[in-house]
Amino acid sequence: MPELTIVEAVNQALALEMARDDRMLVFGEDVGKTGGVFRATDGLYERYGDKRVIDTPLSEGVIAGAAIGLAIAGWVPVAEIQFLGFAHNGFNQVVDQLARVRYRSAGSLSAQVTIRAPYGAGVRAPELHSDAFEAHFAHAPGLKVAAPSTPHDVKGMLLAAIRDPDPVLFLEPLRGYRQVRGDVPDGDYTVELGTARIARSGTDVTVVAWSAAVQVALQAAEDAQAQGVSVEVIDLRSLVPIDVATLADSVTRTGRAVVVQEAPLTAGFGAEVVATIQEEAFFSLQAPIHRVAAPDVPYPVQLLEEAYAPNAERVLEAILATTRD
Questions:
Q1: Distances in Å between the alpha carbon of 167 and those of 101, 145, 221, 228, 317?
Q2: Phi, then psi, of 219 in degrees rounded to 5
Q3: Of residues 153, 58, 56, 75, the one with CA closest to residue 114
Q4: Rounded Cα distance, 282 and 60, in Å
Q5: For residue 24, what are the β-bridge partners?
Protein backbone atom coordinates (compact mmCIF):
# COMPACT_ATOMS: atom_id res chain seq x y z
CA MET A 1 0.00 0.00 0.00
CA PRO A 2 1.69 3.24 -1.09
CA GLU A 3 2.24 6.13 1.32
CA LEU A 4 0.82 9.39 0.00
CA THR A 5 0.46 12.97 1.12
CA ILE A 6 -3.02 14.48 1.31
CA VAL A 7 -2.58 16.44 -1.92
CA GLU A 8 -1.44 13.26 -3.68
CA ALA A 9 -4.53 11.47 -2.35
CA VAL A 10 -6.74 14.22 -3.77
CA ASN A 11 -5.05 13.91 -7.15
CA GLN A 12 -5.37 10.13 -7.16
CA ALA A 13 -9.09 10.28 -6.33
CA LEU A 14 -9.79 12.80 -9.09
CA ALA A 15 -7.85 10.81 -11.68
CA LEU A 16 -9.53 7.55 -10.70
CA GLU A 17 -13.04 8.97 -10.88
CA MET A 18 -12.42 10.76 -14.17
CA ALA A 19 -11.35 7.44 -15.65
CA ARG A 20 -14.41 5.69 -14.22
CA ASP A 21 -17.05 8.28 -15.12
CA ASP A 22 -16.74 10.24 -18.34
CA ARG A 23 -19.43 12.68 -17.15
CA MET A 24 -17.05 14.11 -14.56
CA LEU A 25 -15.59 17.56 -15.15
CA VAL A 26 -12.90 19.36 -13.13
CA PHE A 27 -12.81 23.14 -13.25
CA GLY A 28 -11.63 26.15 -11.30
CA GLU A 29 -8.90 28.76 -11.24
CA ASP A 30 -5.55 27.40 -12.54
CA VAL A 31 -6.62 23.74 -12.28
CA GLY A 32 -5.81 22.98 -15.93
CA LYS A 33 -2.50 23.87 -17.49
CA THR A 34 -0.93 24.80 -14.14
CA GLY A 35 -2.28 21.76 -12.32
CA GLY A 36 -3.63 23.83 -9.44
CA VAL A 37 -1.79 26.19 -7.12
CA PHE A 38 -1.01 23.21 -4.85
CA ARG A 39 -0.76 20.74 -7.78
CA ALA A 40 -3.86 18.85 -6.66
CA THR A 41 -5.00 18.55 -10.29
CA ASP A 42 -1.53 17.95 -11.72
CA GLY A 43 -1.57 15.80 -14.86
CA LEU A 44 -5.34 15.78 -15.35
CA TYR A 45 -5.30 18.39 -18.12
CA GLU A 46 -2.74 16.43 -20.12
CA ARG A 47 -4.67 13.19 -19.65
CA TYR A 48 -8.25 14.36 -20.19
CA GLY A 49 -7.92 17.56 -22.19
CA ASP A 50 -9.45 21.01 -22.02
CA LYS A 51 -13.04 19.79 -22.44
CA ARG A 52 -12.99 18.00 -19.07
CA VAL A 53 -10.33 19.96 -17.13
CA ILE A 54 -11.21 23.61 -17.48
CA ASP A 55 -9.51 26.81 -16.31
CA THR A 56 -12.12 29.35 -15.25
CA PRO A 57 -12.10 33.11 -14.75
CA LEU A 58 -11.28 34.40 -11.29
CA SER A 59 -14.92 34.38 -10.16
CA GLU A 60 -16.19 32.04 -7.47
CA GLY A 61 -19.79 32.95 -8.30
CA VAL A 62 -19.27 31.83 -11.88
CA ILE A 63 -17.57 28.61 -10.75
CA ALA A 64 -20.40 27.64 -8.38
CA GLY A 65 -23.14 28.80 -10.73
CA ALA A 66 -21.72 26.87 -13.68
CA ALA A 67 -21.55 23.75 -11.51
CA ILE A 68 -25.28 23.96 -10.80
CA GLY A 69 -26.23 24.18 -14.46
CA LEU A 70 -23.83 21.44 -15.49
CA ALA A 71 -25.15 19.07 -12.82
CA ILE A 72 -28.77 19.66 -13.78
CA ALA A 73 -27.77 18.97 -17.40
CA GLY A 74 -26.37 15.58 -16.40
CA TRP A 75 -22.67 16.23 -15.87
CA VAL A 76 -20.77 15.52 -12.64
CA PRO A 77 -18.86 18.73 -11.86
CA VAL A 78 -16.02 18.87 -9.36
CA ALA A 79 -15.28 22.55 -8.85
CA GLU A 80 -12.31 23.96 -6.99
CA ILE A 81 -12.52 27.13 -4.94
CA GLN A 82 -8.85 27.99 -4.63
CA PHE A 83 -9.17 28.87 -0.91
CA LEU A 84 -12.28 28.54 1.25
CA GLY A 85 -11.79 32.17 2.26
CA PHE A 86 -12.77 33.15 -1.30
CA ALA A 87 -15.98 31.11 -1.20
CA HIS A 88 -18.00 34.05 0.11
CA ASN A 89 -17.74 35.52 -3.38
CA GLY A 90 -19.93 32.61 -4.48
CA PHE A 91 -21.91 32.27 -1.25
CA ASN A 92 -25.29 33.00 -2.81
CA GLN A 93 -24.77 30.42 -5.53
CA VAL A 94 -23.62 27.73 -3.08
CA VAL A 95 -26.02 28.30 -0.18
CA ASP A 96 -29.14 29.80 -1.77
CA GLN A 97 -29.02 27.97 -5.12
CA LEU A 98 -26.89 24.80 -5.13
CA ALA A 99 -27.92 23.54 -1.69
CA ARG A 100 -31.63 23.98 -2.51
CA VAL A 101 -31.87 22.39 -5.94
CA ARG A 102 -33.59 19.22 -4.70
CA TYR A 103 -35.93 21.15 -2.37
CA ARG A 104 -36.88 23.84 -4.88
CA SER A 105 -37.60 21.26 -7.59
CA ALA A 106 -39.75 19.16 -5.22
CA GLY A 107 -37.31 16.28 -5.66
CA SER A 108 -37.40 16.23 -9.46
CA LEU A 109 -33.81 17.51 -9.77
CA SER A 110 -30.58 16.89 -7.92
CA ALA A 111 -27.20 18.58 -8.12
CA GLN A 112 -24.36 16.06 -8.06
CA VAL A 113 -21.73 18.70 -7.36
CA THR A 114 -18.56 18.54 -5.30
CA ILE A 115 -16.84 21.78 -4.37
CA ARG A 116 -13.27 21.29 -3.21
CA ALA A 117 -11.65 23.98 -1.08
CA PRO A 118 -8.38 23.98 0.88
CA TYR A 119 -8.53 25.97 4.11
CA GLY A 120 -6.95 26.67 7.47
CA ALA A 121 -3.53 27.57 8.81
CA GLY A 122 -0.19 26.20 7.77
CA VAL A 123 1.15 28.10 4.76
CA ARG A 124 1.28 31.70 6.08
CA ALA A 125 -0.98 32.82 3.27
CA PRO A 126 -2.11 36.41 2.82
CA GLU A 127 -5.38 37.78 4.19
CA LEU A 128 -8.61 35.95 3.22
CA HIS A 129 -6.79 32.75 2.25
CA SER A 130 -6.71 30.69 5.45
CA ASP A 131 -9.98 31.53 7.23
CA ALA A 132 -11.86 28.52 8.63
CA PHE A 133 -15.41 29.33 7.55
CA GLU A 134 -16.83 25.80 7.67
CA ALA A 135 -19.63 26.80 10.07
CA HIS A 136 -21.01 29.27 7.54
CA PHE A 137 -21.67 26.42 5.10
CA ALA A 138 -22.63 23.76 7.63
CA HIS A 139 -25.57 26.04 8.45
CA ALA A 140 -27.00 25.62 4.91
CA PRO A 141 -29.67 22.89 4.70
CA GLY A 142 -29.11 20.64 1.68
CA LEU A 143 -25.34 20.97 1.63
CA LYS A 144 -23.11 18.22 3.02
CA VAL A 145 -19.74 19.24 4.47
CA ALA A 146 -16.75 16.88 4.72
CA ALA A 147 -13.46 17.71 6.46
CA PRO A 148 -11.17 14.67 6.59
CA SER A 149 -7.64 14.74 8.03
CA THR A 150 -5.72 11.76 6.62
CA PRO A 151 -4.71 10.77 3.08
CA HIS A 152 -6.70 7.53 3.35
CA ASP A 153 -9.88 9.35 4.33
CA VAL A 154 -9.33 12.19 1.87
CA LYS A 155 -9.26 9.79 -1.07
CA GLY A 156 -12.15 7.64 0.14
CA MET A 157 -14.36 10.55 1.15
CA LEU A 158 -13.65 12.53 -2.00
CA LEU A 159 -14.75 9.55 -4.09
CA ALA A 160 -17.87 9.24 -1.93
CA ALA A 161 -18.55 12.97 -2.27
CA ILE A 162 -18.25 12.96 -6.05
CA ARG A 163 -20.66 10.02 -6.31
CA ASP A 164 -23.18 11.50 -3.88
CA PRO A 165 -26.34 12.65 -5.72
CA ASP A 166 -26.44 15.86 -3.67
CA PRO A 167 -23.91 18.69 -3.28
CA VAL A 168 -20.90 18.29 -1.01
CA LEU A 169 -18.44 20.93 0.17
CA PHE A 170 -15.16 19.04 0.53
CA LEU A 171 -12.65 20.80 2.78
CA GLU A 172 -8.96 19.97 2.50
CA PRO A 173 -6.47 20.90 5.26
CA LEU A 174 -3.80 23.27 4.00
CA ARG A 175 -1.56 22.39 6.95
CA GLY A 176 -1.74 18.71 6.05
CA TYR A 177 -1.42 18.93 2.26
CA ARG A 178 2.22 17.82 2.32
CA GLN A 179 2.98 17.41 6.03
CA VAL A 180 0.61 14.49 6.65
CA ARG A 181 1.43 11.18 5.02
CA GLY A 182 -0.32 7.82 5.28
CA ASP A 183 -1.08 4.52 3.61
CA VAL A 184 -3.61 4.78 0.79
CA PRO A 185 -4.93 1.81 -1.23
CA ASP A 186 -4.29 2.03 -4.96
CA GLY A 187 -7.76 0.96 -5.98
CA ASP A 188 -11.30 2.20 -5.70
CA TYR A 189 -12.81 2.54 -2.23
CA THR A 190 -15.07 4.98 -0.43
CA VAL A 191 -15.36 6.28 3.12
CA GLU A 192 -18.98 6.95 4.00
CA LEU A 193 -19.99 10.54 4.61
CA GLY A 194 -21.46 11.00 8.07
CA THR A 195 -19.07 8.68 9.88
CA ALA A 196 -16.48 9.75 12.44
CA ARG A 197 -13.22 7.91 13.17
CA ILE A 198 -11.64 7.06 16.50
CA ALA A 199 -8.14 8.32 15.81
CA ARG A 200 -6.86 7.34 19.26
CA SER A 201 -8.53 5.33 22.01
CA GLY A 202 -8.62 6.61 25.59
CA THR A 203 -10.58 6.46 28.80
CA ASP A 204 -10.37 9.82 30.62
CA VAL A 205 -11.21 12.60 28.13
CA THR A 206 -12.66 12.77 24.62
CA VAL A 207 -11.11 15.33 22.27
CA VAL A 208 -13.15 16.06 19.14
CA ALA A 209 -11.50 17.65 16.10
CA TRP A 210 -11.63 17.67 12.32
CA SER A 211 -9.35 18.49 9.40
CA ALA A 212 -5.88 19.77 10.40
CA ALA A 213 -6.92 20.14 14.05
CA VAL A 214 -6.87 16.35 14.37
CA GLN A 215 -3.07 16.29 14.20
CA VAL A 216 -2.96 18.97 16.90
CA ALA A 217 -5.32 16.92 19.06
CA LEU A 218 -3.25 13.77 18.61
CA GLN A 219 -0.08 15.55 19.72
CA ALA A 220 -1.88 16.94 22.76
CA ALA A 221 -3.18 13.46 23.58
CA GLU A 222 0.37 12.11 23.47
CA ASP A 223 1.53 14.90 25.80
CA ALA A 224 -1.39 14.21 28.16
CA GLN A 225 -0.49 10.52 28.28
CA ALA A 226 2.91 11.50 29.65
CA GLN A 227 1.04 13.18 32.52
CA GLY A 228 -1.12 10.14 33.21
CA VAL A 229 -4.26 11.24 31.34
CA SER A 230 -5.71 8.85 28.75
CA VAL A 231 -7.26 10.77 25.85
CA GLU A 232 -9.58 9.51 23.14
CA VAL A 233 -9.40 11.54 19.91
CA ILE A 234 -12.42 11.60 17.62
CA ASP A 235 -11.74 12.65 14.02
CA LEU A 236 -15.16 13.96 13.08
CA ARG A 237 -14.40 13.73 9.31
CA SER A 238 -17.94 14.74 8.37
CA LEU A 239 -19.58 17.89 9.72
CA VAL A 240 -22.86 17.47 7.84
CA PRO A 241 -24.14 14.89 8.45
CA ILE A 242 -22.52 14.57 11.87
CA ASP A 243 -21.91 11.18 13.50
CA VAL A 244 -23.95 11.62 16.67
CA ALA A 245 -23.62 8.01 17.78
CA THR A 246 -19.81 7.99 17.86
CA LEU A 247 -19.71 11.27 19.78
CA ALA A 248 -22.27 10.13 22.32
CA ASP A 249 -20.66 6.74 22.85
CA SER A 250 -17.19 8.19 23.41
CA VAL A 251 -18.24 10.92 25.86
CA THR A 252 -20.53 8.52 27.69
CA ARG A 253 -17.46 6.36 28.34
CA THR A 254 -14.97 9.11 29.21
CA GLY A 255 -17.26 11.62 30.93
CA ARG A 256 -15.27 14.62 29.71
CA ALA A 257 -14.88 16.43 26.39
CA VAL A 258 -12.72 19.03 24.64
CA VAL A 259 -13.61 20.35 21.17
CA VAL A 260 -10.91 21.81 18.91
CA GLN A 261 -11.53 24.01 15.86
CA GLU A 262 -9.33 26.27 13.72
CA ALA A 263 -12.12 28.84 13.38
CA PRO A 264 -12.75 31.72 15.78
CA LEU A 265 -14.55 30.67 18.94
CA THR A 266 -17.93 32.41 18.70
CA ALA A 267 -20.59 30.44 16.77
CA GLY A 268 -18.01 28.09 15.26
CA PHE A 269 -18.93 24.50 14.39
CA GLY A 270 -17.45 23.46 17.72
CA ALA A 271 -20.51 24.96 19.37
CA GLU A 272 -22.68 22.51 17.42
CA VAL A 273 -20.51 19.65 18.65
CA VAL A 274 -20.85 20.88 22.24
CA ALA A 275 -24.65 21.12 21.89
CA THR A 276 -24.80 17.61 20.46
CA ILE A 277 -22.77 16.20 23.33
CA GLN A 278 -24.96 18.06 25.85
CA GLU A 279 -28.09 16.58 24.31
CA GLU A 280 -26.81 13.04 23.89
CA ALA A 281 -24.46 12.48 26.86
CA PHE A 282 -25.41 15.08 29.46
CA PHE A 283 -25.86 12.68 32.36
CA SER A 284 -22.43 11.14 31.72
CA LEU A 285 -20.56 14.45 31.88
CA GLN A 286 -18.32 14.87 34.91
CA ALA A 287 -17.08 18.35 33.94
CA PRO A 288 -17.98 21.25 31.64
CA ILE A 289 -17.05 20.80 27.99
CA HIS A 290 -14.04 22.90 26.96
CA ARG A 291 -13.45 24.51 23.56
CA VAL A 292 -10.11 25.39 21.98
CA ALA A 293 -10.35 27.77 19.04
CA ALA A 294 -8.84 30.77 17.34
CA PRO A 295 -9.56 34.16 18.96
CA ASP A 296 -12.47 36.29 17.78
CA VAL A 297 -10.36 38.52 15.56
CA PRO A 298 -9.75 38.61 11.80
CA TYR A 299 -7.11 36.21 10.52
CA PRO A 300 -3.77 37.90 11.25
CA VAL A 301 -0.75 38.68 9.11
CA GLN A 302 1.47 35.73 8.26
CA LEU A 303 4.01 35.97 11.09
CA LEU A 304 1.26 35.80 13.72
CA GLU A 305 -0.32 32.63 12.33
CA GLU A 306 1.29 30.31 14.89
CA ALA A 307 -0.03 32.45 17.76
CA TYR A 308 -3.52 32.56 16.22
CA ALA A 309 -4.22 28.94 15.37
CA PRO A 310 -4.87 26.36 18.12
CA ASN A 311 -1.80 24.33 19.04
CA ALA A 312 -1.05 21.22 21.07
CA GLU A 313 -0.07 23.24 24.13
CA ARG A 314 -3.46 24.97 24.31
CA VAL A 315 -5.30 21.71 23.75
CA LEU A 316 -3.28 20.05 26.50
CA GLU A 317 -4.21 22.88 28.87
CA ALA A 318 -7.90 22.28 28.11
CA ILE A 319 -7.52 18.52 28.60
CA LEU A 320 -5.89 18.99 32.02
CA ALA A 321 -8.42 21.67 32.98
CA THR A 322 -11.38 19.39 32.30
CA THR A 323 -9.87 16.70 34.53
CA ARG A 324 -9.68 19.24 37.37
CA ASP A 325 -13.22 20.60 36.97
A1: 9, 9, 34, 44, 38
A2: -65, -40
A3: 75
A4: 42
A5: 76
Hey, what domains does the chain have and what are their CATH numbers? 3-183 (3.40.50.970), 197-324 (3.40.50.920)
pLDDT in tens, 252-283: 999 999 999 999 999 999 999 999 999 999 99
CA–CA distance, 27 with 70 (Å, rounded to integer): 11
User: Could you tell me if 292 and 318 are in contact, meaning their C-beta atoms sit under 8 angstroms apart?
Assistant: yes
Active site members: 129
Would you tell me how many other CB atoms lie within 10 Å of the CB of residue 107?
8
Residue 153, CA atoms < 13 Å, CB-side half-sphere: 28
- The phi, psi pair for 221, rounded to 5°, reads -65, -40
Strand, coil or helix: 144? strand
**What does the pLDDT look like over 178-236, one tens digit per residue?**
999 999 999 999 999 999 999 999 999 999 999 999 999 999 999 999 999 999 999 99
Phi and psi angles of residue 284, each rounded to the nearest 5 degrees, phi first: -95, -15
Distance of alpha carbon 325 from alpha carbon 321, whole angstroms = 6
Q: Give kind and range of the element (H or E) at residue 96.
A: none
Closest CA to 218 of 237, 227, 231, 205: 231
Q: Which residues contact 126 (CB under 8 A, 6 or more apart)?
A: 302
Whether the upstream peptide bond of residue 241 has omega within 30° of 0, thus cis, is yes
Distance between CA atoms of residues 227 and 290, nearest Å? 19
Q: Are 269 and 213 in contact (CB under 8 A)?
A: no
